[in-house]
Every structure is written in structure tokens, then in C-alpha cells.
Amino acid sequence: MASEASVRLGTPPDRLWIQKPGIYEDEEGRTWVTVVVRFNPSHREWARASNTQGSRYEPSITVHLWQMAVRTREPLSSGQMPFSQLPPVWQLYPGRKYRAADSSFWEIVDHGQIDSMEQLVLTYQPERKD
């Protein structure tokens, strides 16, 4: 579908700071809203595998952020899933990735435009320890 194709833009934001759970602001004052957070395996599958196999690896996380204006409303609880798994700050790093406040690295999977919406897709791949 042509409307779903992502058109490449210039450079992604240099830094994203959390304003509210799921809402970030970049260095230009633009707001970025978390529209999708995907875990692989899902939380349910991961919990089941951890309980039965004793595995302690973390799931990978993919987050889709859209640059859009946001109306002020009641903030969400900071412990509310899935936003509690996202870092409070992302800093652009060489090699098409962001470094989070906890020193984890998030790969830029896509930075493009869908229709008139700028999109940033990041993936966190933890190191497996099993």
C-alpha cells in the first residue's frame, strides 16, 4: 500500500527526553508519541518460558514513535506497562542507534514518513545470558 510506505527523512532527533510515560520531546521541542511497543517474545510467552525453563534473558523491544502535537491530559502512572520498560532519555549515537540513559543501545530500524507523519522505529536487543 502506497500510504504505508516509509519515505526517508534527514537525520533522526539528536536526543529524546521523556515528558510523560509514552511521550518524548526532542531538542527542537517537538513531541514524539509512543504508538506501538512490541515485545518478542510477548510478556506472556516470556513469563511462561522463564517459569518452566529457568531462562532469565530479556525480551527484545520494538517501539514506534510518531512525531505529533499532543494535547495536555492527565499523566499516566510511570509504572504502567509497557511504558515502564522504555528509557527516560535516548541520545543519538554513531552507527544508526541511540544510547539510552541505562547505557543500553537501541537500533534505528526506520526513520521515515508515513503519509504526513514522521516515524521513528527503535529496537532493543538484549544480550542473551542462557
How would you describe this protein?
This protein has 130 residues and is mostly beta strands. 8% of the residues lie in helices and 44% in strands. An 8-stranded antiparallel barrel has the order 2-3-4-5-9-8-7-6. It is globular. It starts with 6 loop residues before the first strand and ends in a 6-residue tail after the last strand.
Global geometry: globular
- Residue ranges: pLDDT <50 for 5 or more in a row? none
Rg over C-alpha atoms, rounded to the nearest angstrom: 16 Å
Alpha-beta classification = mainly beta
Number of helices: 1
Distance between the termini: 41 Å
Mean pLDDT rating: 82
N-to-C SSE string, H for helix and E for strand: EEEEHEEEEE
Residue fraction in strands: 35-45%
Biggest sheet features: 8 strands, antiparallel, barrel
Q: Helix proportion of residues, in percent?
A: under 10%
List how many beta strands DSSP finds.
9
Looking across the biggest beta sheet, what order are the strands in? 2-3-4-5-9-8-7-6
How would you describe this structure in keywords?
130 residues; mainly beta; eight-stranded antiparallel β-barrel
What topology emerges from the helices and strands here?
Elements: E1 7-8, E2 15-20, E3 23-26, E4 31-40, H1 43-53, E5 60-67, E6 89-93, E7 97-100, E8 105-114, E9 117-124
Antiparallel strand pairs: 1-8, 2-3, 2-6, 3-4, 4-5, 5-9, 6-7, 7-8, 8-9
